[in-house]
């Protein structure tokens, strides 16, 4: 019985030496590293060493897959952040254009306010989809140089002071208010809601 066990161990050692030599040949290592790997594999009875190396390779493969998933998630988050910053920049740009349009309408009204032929006596609201005149036209023409579509823009002009026979609304020192409303639609259309931008300006008629 003991002789049979000894012969079995000898066969396992012989198989271990063969596996060890195939392991060294498989990795094509330089001579110093080959001898080191051979001695290490013999110490671990080679089969155990091969098992440990195989387990290490499986862990490395799993780590590579995890790194790829993390990379994809990071790229998606980075792209969403970049698109969000871009939309925020365009929103601020749109607000600046709307505010400057309202200021341009007020400037037109306070410089040419007393001349009724320039359309500076009409209070109310007008859309830029048609062909507005006076203060409305001035605001729409200014915004058209910056926006590709101003059909949804609405201009409201009001004269809080005057309104009597001796003090018309466009008389000097009277106030004029211009309010501009513009629906902002996101450019990238990623499900973000549209926002209505409002800007107002006020001045006193000088001439």
Q: Could you please describe the fold and organization of this structure?
A:
Strands 1-2-3-4 form a four-stranded antiparallel beta sheet, with helices on one face. Helices cover 56% and strands 14% of the residues. Helix 2 packs across helix 3. The protein starts with a helix and ends with a strand. Residues 13-20 have low confidence and may be disordered. The longest helix is centred in the middle third of the chain and has 65 residues, at 47-111. It folds into two domains: 2-69, no CATH class; 97-204, no CATH class. The radius of gyration is 41 Å and the shape is rod-shaped. It is an alpha+beta fold and 207 residues long. The protein is built from four helices and four strands, in the order αααβαβββ.
């Amino acid at each position: 019985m003991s002789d049979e066990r000894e012969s079995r161990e000898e066969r396992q050692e012989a198989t271990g030496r063969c596996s060890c030599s195939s392991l060294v040949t498989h990795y094509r290592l330089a001579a110093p590293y080959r001898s080191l790997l051979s001695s290490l594999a013999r110490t671990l009875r080679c089969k155990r060493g091969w098992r440990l190396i195989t387990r290490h390779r499986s862990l490395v493969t799993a780590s590579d897959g995890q790194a790829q998933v993390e990379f994809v998630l990071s790229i998606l988050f980075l792209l969403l952040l970049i698109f969000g910053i871009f939309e925020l920049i365009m929103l601020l740009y749109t607000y600046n254009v709307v505010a400057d349009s309202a200021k341009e309408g007020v400037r037109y009204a306070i410089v040419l306010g007393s001349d009724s032929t320039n359309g500076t006596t009409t209070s109310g609201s007008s859309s830029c989809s048609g062909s507005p005149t006076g203060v409305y036209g001035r605001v729409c023409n200014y915004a058209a140089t910056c926006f590709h579509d101003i059909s949804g823009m609405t201009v409201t002009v009001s004269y809080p002071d005057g309104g009597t026979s001796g003090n018309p609304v466009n008389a000097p020192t009277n106030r004029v208010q211009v309010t501009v409303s513009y629906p902002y639609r996101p450019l990238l259309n990623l499900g973000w809601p549209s926002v209505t931008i409002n800007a107002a300006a006020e001045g006193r008629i000088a001439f």
